[in-house]
Amino acid sequence: MAGRLSTLLDPSRIRLQVQSNKRTVALNEIARLLDGHSDVTNFQGFYNELLARERLDTTCLGNEIALPHARTEHVQKIVMAVGRSDSGVLFENSNQTVKLMFVLGTPKSNPTDYLQVVSALCKIFKDPSNRDALMNAATPEQFIQAIVTAEEKLLSPA
Q1: Residue 84: which CATH number?
Q2: Which of 13, 87, 130, 135 could form a disulfide with 150 if both were Cys (CB 3.0 to 4.6 A apart)?
Q3: Helix, strand or coil for residue 148?
Q4: Within a domain: residue 4?
Q5: Taking the alpha carbons of 130, 126, 87, 19 in that order, is the dihedral positive or negative?
Q6: Is 1 a member of any domain?
Q7: How many CB atoms neighbour CB 145 within 10 A?
Q8: Segment holding 61, helix H or strand E
Q9: Is 6 helix (H, G, I), strand (E, B) or coil?
């Protein structure tokens, strides 16, 4: 991952009010934000692999956060879309309610970028003030700013 996590985010790919509380419908709603992305070569192929991965094992990280993802040949570079649900979405396979979903597509040929993104997200989510900022952001731009602020906290010496 060249650069920061925040560079993967675009306001048009952040939905702060996911409509469905059903997992697969909510995932479709969020993943659709990547349909037409210049680095997604085959959206349906990517989406099918995302669902297949989701059936294998839970992508819940705890703290009401999930990281649905697919390592796939249908993306040229790592892509991300974000969904937030105030009421929560039940992830039946782990019996957890999730309020923040970060949908990732990563090229099969580059597992290092994927691991760097997951690592950066986990470090950000560890801090309750970062999670609160993401849950309280009023606009996609504020959401991205919360990620930027969290990244800066991680990069500055303690």
Answers
A1: 3.40.930.10
A2: 130
A3: helix
A4: no
A5: positive
A6: no
A7: 14
A8: strand 60-62
A9: helix
Instruction: Give the pLDDT confidence of 11-57 residue by residue, as tens digits.
Output: 999 999 999 999 999 999 999 999 999 999 999 999 999 999 988 88
Reduce the DSSP state of residue 128 to 3 states and report it. helix
Q: Please give the distance of CA 153 from its chain centroid, rounded to a whole number.
A: 20
Q: Across residues 57-77, what is the average pLDDT? A: 93
Q: What is the pLDDT of residue 1?
A: 41
In a domain, 5, yes or no: no
Number of Cβ within 10 Å of residue 101's Cβ equals 27
Residue corresponding to tokens 């989510």: 125
Q: Which residue has the tokens 């995302």?
A: 50
Instruction: Calculate mean pLDDT across residues 97-102.
Output: 96
d(CA 144, CA 70): 22
* Domain extent at residue 124: 10-155
CB proximity list for 102: less than 8 A, separation 6 or greater: 65, 66, 67, 68, 80, 81, 82, 121
Q: Which helix (H) or strand (E) holds 71?
A: strand 69-72
C-beta atoms surrounding 115 within 10 Å: 12
CA angle, corner 123, sides to 120 and 126, nearest 5?
150
56 lies in some domain:
yes
| 39: three-class secondary structure by DSSP | coil
Output phi, psi for 104, to 5 deg.
Answer: -120, 140
